[in-house]
Amino acid sequence: MADLHSHAVEPSERLDTTPAPAWRSLPALLRSLGAATVVAAVSIFLLQGWDQGNDVQRYLILLAHTVGLAGLGFASGRWIGESKGARLLVALALASVPANFAVVGGFVYSQFGVNTAAMLYPAFATWQVASPSAALLCAASALVLLSPVAWLGFMVLTRRFALRFTALYMLTNAMLVLPVRDPVIVGWGALALTVAVLATIARTARGEVALRTPEGVIARTLQIVPVGLILARNLWLYSADSLLFTVIAMVAFLLLRHVALLLEPSGKARSILEAVAIAPAASAALGATDLFLYTLPYAGEFALPFFAFVFAGLVLEISLRSGRGGAGYRRLAAGIVSVALIGNLILIGGAAMAALCLLFGLALIVAGHMVEQRVIFVLGLLMLAVGLAYQLHYVIALFDLGSWASLALLGVAAILFGSAIERHGQRLKGYATQWGRQLRAWEN
Predict the structure, then answer these.
(1) Among 193, 294, 314, 437, which one is least packed by beta carbons within 10 Å?
(2) What is the pLDDT of residue 16?
């Protein structure tokens, strides 16, 4: 295994500081071209129509291709003594493992799935065996032959964590074999699997520099590929609903957040990924709102606030772990909630909407004071003012100036308000001046 990780560096290589000639970039170019060719070959194999042979023979060819890549990578590291090409071959074998399990999943579903006879699939997606025993035999062969391939691949990428990553990888790939295609089960299962995998990886990688190298990032990213295949399979071949759409958006959001946290906090790449994560966050909020309306069809007046709360919550998550402080994302989250609640109050009205404006206006005022951001504080004041104005308008609409009791109450209120200004006017002015200076000292 040592040949796959490193090779001896000659003294002449260490002392040579002259620019490398152009031909020295040829091996890297050939490796890139070879990797692209292998990926294209596997894709063509999976997508092209086949008139000869049966599905089991096609699967055995794919399985032999994966095992052969791993074996060739191991052998080339031993015989040629060059590690880069060997690592690339083994990594390609590791990346093709989910394709094998997806095919086995087709075999198992053809025998154990529900209503399979009524489904029409594209020719490239039709994988069938003659009996349940044949399907189980294919699944067993995949587990036995591909486990060593996965172990070898992770030995190359992350030697110290090879066993743990292999077990996790085989577990996520095994989910491809389950004969379940119901969107609800697949959606919740994929989301739970994504959270579990990312949590396991994050716990394993805490404080481990080796898992932040390019090889470590590849090893971590590969763990989520089977989940992507599960979702893509259901989205393409089976019925897709709002739940599946929401799950796909949430998985994309979680992946972007996971990858962003691997990068340098002050780096431009991390900032770009944080900004890109807003799109799946909005999509997830939109899908969740559709599910909310489907579950509670009579709660349409709360649809916009619900969307805003989900969207703002995900944006707030970005702000809490942003590489550059997160002030901009906090402003965005506050703006989403403010615009949604004020707009909903203007368009729909109602005491409940006004109460939401008052409640979240106070919450934004407190949050703006805690993080010392003027925009959030002012948005909170705006929401509070709009909510109070609506309530005041409602009270005035019910107020009868023709009643002597109403007139008396209005007069007493005016007298008390004037007395308060007379007695505490200077103190209130001092408080206002102090608050103004403090507010100007805060960031936007």
Answers:
(1) 437
(2) 45
